[in-house]
């Protein structure tokens, strides 16, 4: 392993409450460190069970030079394998797809979807196929969200699993299908794309479409009626939650907000939508006419899940929108956004894909611009770490997670 001395030095310089030292955002070495060490030491969100809905389906998740195939086996199980043939190492698949077996394009070694080597021509007598199955990758299915870990000894995920699973179970993800998927390449470091997601300090000035339904409650901001003051009013937010509590309890889905407990990496929160909206759409109306939970299409709240270090998810009464992020270069990030609807919803009848995707497609483009502007300003000589506002406490939580896990991975 490379030594990453400059990274270790920058990590030591980091100050709580402040943005990272420059090198960690912009250098080639930080990109190498992130993709080869830091991001391999944690669980990463890859996709949903709907991305591999039927036996034979496969999906690729790629981090740096490592490619992972997520498959649905003929028994309906979900598995993950390194996308590298056990013969001479060729990349087995170059994209998502569907097939009964995985056949290597080089010499046609053939694998089952649960990773067993089924056929290999002209191998010596002593060759034992059982020893040449695909190399598995650790996988957790958390209520339909698939997480992968590339470490030899993955860190515990039990508490993340328990908290998320319990709350999203009401939206039965086994009954959903992928309706739309956008891959957006952002010209910014992945950590800036993540930081941007963890605050709504920028929302008022940049997100007209999102703010039609997303309320800035819960992002460290008081209620709008609090007036013009700049100061956070947690009391007003708490009072709003208390007011909703009885109704949510009656419906059986009340849960206290889970917010990165003891440095775990998840936040799960049911939050009210703005302006009486029932879905994250331009007009606040459902984008799909088939509800995805048992309480119809009139619910004016949504359930959101944020995980460190690379995902966020919003569950509305009619659809789920889910985001997975991976670095492609020091200044290049893939943001994959997927919109899921009920499997019985018919395109063009129950939903219009363009309408379903409209809010977050516009929001992602705006955020991409902001992250690019952020990266551009950090690159130059004038940058010094800046202080986060009180509305950016979740940005600080992301950054603290990054620093802590990076230090642990490097042993510094
Ligand atoms: O909704 C989100 O995922 C993020 C968090 C705060 C604002 N925002 C666009
Ligand atoms: Fe895959 Fe030879 S490298 S069959
Ligand atoms: Fe934004």
UniProtKB/TrEMBL annotation:
One GO MF term: iron ion binding
State its cofactor: Fe cation
Q: Which residues form the Rieske domain?
A: 44-148
Superkingdom, taxonomy of origin: Bacteria
Show the Pfam families listed in the entry.
Answer: Rieske, Ring_hydroxyl_A
Q: Which UniProt keywords apply?
A: 2Fe-2S, Iron, Iron-sulfur, Metal-binding, Oxidoreductase
Protein's recorded name: (Fe-S)-binding protein
Species source reads Novosphingobium sediminis
